[in-house]
Design brief:
about 160 residues, Rieske Iron-sulfur Protein, six-stranded antiparallel sheet, four-stranded antiparallel sheet, 2 helices, 10 strands, globular, binds FE2/S2 (inorganic) cluster
Amino acid sequence: MTEKDHGCRTNAKPAGKEPLGLSRRNLFSAIAIAAGSIGLSSIATSAQAASKKYKVCATKDIKVGGGSIFKISAAGGIQIMVTQPKPGVFRAFNPACTHQGIRLSKIAGSNILCEKGHGAAFDTTTGKVTRGPAQIALQKYTLTVENKSLYVTLNS
Ligand code: FES
């Protein structure tokens, strides 16, 4: 049997260069992966360091089964919708409808309604879509209760 008979010879690279070429490629891949990992962890660390708590309102400002929208001036005027679906249970959402961004304006029962838009509805506890045309849940924020006041945690 000759080398041509088993077909290995036609696609083979010069034996003396391939190990070195693969080694370089692997080295560059490893460097790229390491750099990416370092970059991502730096971003995550920066995000954690940049998150900050802002006072939104007093707990008594939100009625059970209701909600209100507050503008957080200290955080660049960002708007936060706070709901209290059950006594002592508070939630915070971005009040922009996920369909086309119209500001949500009304709470009816356990739903936040996009009355000025196209009629979408979102759950006051989870922010999940309960009626379309929106397909995506509301953006949630971390809300904490301290000394009868509500604080939202935002990334700056
Ligand atoms: S913008 Fe809210 S349903 Fe269209």
